[in-house]
Specification:
The chain has about 210 residues and is α+β, with helices and mostly antiparallel strands. The protein is about 30% helix and about 25% strand. The strands form 4 sheets. A 4-stranded mixed beta sheet has the order 4-3-6-7, with helices on both faces. Strands 5-9-8 form a 3-stranded antiparallel beta sheet. Helix 2 crosses helix 3.
Amino acid sequence: MERADAVRLLNQLINKDLVQVAHAHGVTIFKGGKKNKGWAGHTLERFLSLPLNSSRAPNFGSWELKSTSLVRSKRDGSLRVKETIAITMLDPVEITQKEFEESHLYNKLRKTLIVARIHENQREEQSLLHSIAEFDLTNPALHRALKADYDLIRENVRQGNPLSGRLGKYIQPRTKGAGHGSTSRAFYARPVLVAHLLNIAPIRFDDESVVSLK
């Protein structure tokens, strides 16, 4: 299935209850009192008539699907992105050798399709599909901002500095894998970037600072 076809189909689910879609497609949300953490992604795959993929980011060849959750502020009911999104693993050798436009990260960003649902509570009684977004790297400002993060992380790798989640305004390097002693790292999209892509809290990019337009 091509990404354009998937987008067309997924647009039909906007403002629809993903819990009901899960039930209709035989996806189990709770089993024995334990939540299936990947139920939303599995539901989207089933809706698109694709075989279930155990990966958190199903790869459909020319594109990849990632689901994320939005939560409401108790103060004013506004939506925010619940957590970061893992994009791809960080290979220290690859990042030192390749510019941003030649990198595995750049390729993954171009392929990624984000589907956001509203997480109401742990009971998952209802969850509306909110929006769909892509990383539009043809946008010069976004391209420049993400390249700056990549170059910063790249320079730290080259200098042999320890990588920290504090690096990067929009893309951060973080430990990925089981256990606190894991040395594997991956690139993650920060919530502020995901919120921008989903048009929840658009950002004005410039060379010195970040200003939310919301």
